[in-house]
Design a protein that fits this description.
alpha/beta; Rossmann fold; Hypothetical protein af1432; 2 domains; 5-stranded parallel β-sheet; 16 helices; 59% helix; disordered C terminus
């Protein structure tokens, strides 16, 4: 335990230092000039400070006020040594951060007894802090493990959905990264952007409940078939909803709202404007961009430029204008994601070709 001693009287300093060295596990860190001690901060390390009140340059109260400007020292215990028995002086010392007083002339046994008590107090506090840190790390580790399991569940559900349609896995992967880029451009926090990236692959999970005859139809859907296809939003929401996992609840929110429209003409609930969850509004843009720029059984892929023009023209009707603005801002990054995803999906022998 390091005990800081600050006293301009060198005789007193040597006397108190020797008393400290007789206490097991303690060493004295001595300064005969308060300015010299302050000059060593915040690199100076100590556990307890014993400070003389009457000193030139800085008195004890002024010294404590200066030292407490450093956050590192604000919780340290301070003992003031003073010959002044005036109540106003003692109140000023307490106000500055002192927790105890020693009256001059210092009685060696009293000094050592009080220091031993403070050492025991600091040692107990340090052990408590260590235990709190150990508990914090344990909770953090458990939280990370839970999060990892949640991510695995989402990945496996995405994989299950892709068994019906081999293009689904690539689509969900692209939409996840597009959505994260849009969320980032909207200024959402890194944690929320990460959650949207992880949850958005679940936006079409409800298609597992759609008949293969509709889901895999190579051609335009009839009105009845299209109505059946729309049910994938509520099916997906029902699959994921009421989970204790915040990530799965977010995925349910996205699944149930990514086909809503800003003007209220979407499905399944005809929500409009900001009544549509922001994650659903973001995924709506990302999903539409990917759908337009990839080929489907019933259509050819659009160029990026044509898709961007289309999405821009739908700001304020189909899409949230702020999401469209963020999409346009993030477009360079989205193009990079699209190119990289295309290269990764190529057979190995073509992946390195330019």
């Amino acid at each position: 335990m390091r005990i800081l001693l600050v006293d301009d009287n060198r005789t007193n300093l040597m006397f108190l230092s020797k008393l400290i060295e007789k206490i097991d596990g303690c060493e004295a860190v001595s300064f005969d000039d308060p300015a010299g001690a302050l000059a060593q901060m915040p690199k100076l390390d100590f556990d307890i400070a014993v400070v003389d009140y009457q000193m030139p340059g800085y008195n004890g109260v002024e010294f404590l006020r200066e030292i407490n400007l450093f956050e590192k020292y604000q919780e340290k215990p301070y003992v003031m040594v003073t010959a002044d028995r005036d109540l106003a002086t003692r109140m000023a010392c307490l106000d500055a951060g002192s927790i105890d007083f020693l009256t001059k002339p210092v009685i060696p046994l009293e000094f050592q007894a009080r220091l031993r008590n403070l050492v025991a107090l600091v040692d107990a506090r340090n052990k408590l802090a260590d235990k709190a840190e150990w508990l914090r790390m344990g909770i953090e580790k458990a939280t990370e493990e839970i999060r990892s399991r949640e991510e695995e569940i989402i990945n496996r559900l995405s994989l299950a959905a892709s068994y019906k349609d081999s293009d689904t896995a690539l689509h969900t992967h692209r939409v996840a990264n597009y959505s994260a880029a849009i969320a980032e451009a909207m200024g959402l926090s890194p944690d929320i952007c990460s959650d949207i990236r992880l949850a958005s692959p679940m936006h079409d999970i409800g298609k597992v409940g759609i008949r293969d005859a509709i889901l895999l139809k190579r051609g335009k859907l009839t009105e009845q078939e299209y109505a059946e296809m729309q049910a994938h939003t509520t099916i997906g929401s029902d699959i994921l909803n009421r989970s204790k996992s915040s990530l799965l609840r977010l995925a349910a929110e996205i699944a149930g709202s990514h086909h809503e429209r800003w003007d209220g003409q979407g499905y399944p609930r005809r929500l409009s404007g900001e009544d549509i969850p922001v994650a659903g509004r973001i995924v709506a843009v990302a999903d539409n961009f990917d759908a337009l720029t990839t080929s489907r059984p019933y259509k050819e892929a659009w160029t990026v430029e044509k898709a961007v023009d289309h999405i821009s023209s739908k700001a304020g009707t189909q899409f949230d204008p702020s999401c469209v603005a963020a999409f346009l801002f993030a477009l360079p990054k989205i193009k990079e994601i699209k190119i990289k995803a295309s290269e990764e999906s190529l057979p190995t022998r073509f992946a390195s070709c330019s």
